Task: structure prediction
Amino acid sequence: MTADRAGWRSGALGSARTLDLGGERRIRAHVVSGDGPPVVLVHGALVNANLWRKVVPLLDGRMRVTLDLPLGSHVEPMAPDADLTPPALADLIADALAALDLEDVTIVGNDTGGGLTQILATRRPERIGRVVLTSCDAFDNFPPPFFRWVLAPARIPGAIPIAFAGLRARRLRRLPIAYGWLSNEAPEPEADDSYVLPVLTDGGVRRDLRKLLAGLDPRHTLDAAAKLAAFDKPVLIAWSANDRFFPPAHAERLAKLIPDARLEWIEGARTFSPEDAPERLAELIAGF
Result:
C-alpha cells in the first residue's frame, strides 16, 4: 500500500515509460502525444513529475513530457555508483531527450530543476529550441541557504529516516522547514504522499538524495550564468512574485544577462507556480 502511494502519478501526465539511458541509468518519463515542438517539464528536489499535473492538461495539442528525475521523490533508484552531480544530472536530461528522439524542445524548469536546466542549456543545448525558467536556483543560490541548513542532516549516512520521519504526518509537511513556504496550499494527498514516501521507504532513493545534496554547489550555477550571456535561443523567465527562496532580483538579473530573454511575473504564486497558478503558467508557456 505504501509503495502504491509512493509511486502514484496523476493520469493527467500521460503514459509512463522507463527510459534506459545506458550505464545502468534508468528514469521514468510521462508522455502525452501531440503536434508541434514538444514541451519538457523538469521538477526540482523532493518532488516529482506530479508537480506538473495541473499544467500538462492546459497545454492541450502539444506533445508534453514530464520527467521523474532521481532527486529524492522518484521510484527508480539509480545504480549505486551513479554520478548525481549537477552536470551529470543535466546530461541525464539531455540523454532522456535523445532517447525520446525530441528536437526543438521547449524545456521548462522549476526549483532545482531550473538550475539543472541552466546547466543543460549551456552544456548540451543541441535539442533545445527555447527555455522557460520559473522560480529556481541561480547564481550563488544553489541551494537556497535556508534549505542548505534544513537539509544538512540528510547528507549524513543513515540520518534520513530520522530527519524525515515527521513528514509521515501530512500536517507537518506544511511547516516552513518542509513544504509549507513553497506553495500557498497543500497538494492533494496523493501528490503529497508521492513526494515524501519514496525517501522514507526506499534505501536506493535515500542514497540518491544524499548524493544529490552533496553535489549541490553554487559554482555550477555561477558557471552556467557566465555562459548564458552567450546563449542564443529564446528564454522566458516566469518568476513567482511571492517567492520566499528565489529572489526577484535573480529573475531581473537573468533577464538582463541572457540576450534573448523576457521576464514575466506570476502574481500570487510562491516557488511552486505549477501548484499555485497553473493557468497563468500554462498561458505563458503556450504563448512563448
Notes: Residues 2-287 form a domain with the Rossmann fold fold (CATH 3.40.50.1820). The mean pLDDT is 94.
